[in-house]
Amino acid sequence: xxxxxxxxxxxxxxxxxxxxxxxxxxxxxxxxxxxxxxxxxxxxxxxxxxxxxxxxxxxxxxxxxxxxxxxxxxxxxxxxxxxxxxxxxxxxxxxxxxxxxxxxxxxxxxxxxx
Length: 114
Known about the structure:
It contains four helices and six strands.
């Protein structure tokens, strides 16, 4: 699966199969091999490679510390995330969280009314 981000940026997510080593799967050559049906080295540049562990209880565990460092650096406190892991918003305050939730509810009502 991939998510269209700002500009030409794309975020690709792939599930590891049983027996695949997360450390090996984030090696640059392996990542290019996995994405070869969509893009190649000649088409684009990799910005980051990371492995995360999803746990069936509804939470996930980060294995590389990338997300935690990013949240600390930007002072994020909460995220609004769909069950399929699409991130609607990340926020640094309760007021910002309330504003994002309001915007989502207004947008949802507008979409349903169409």
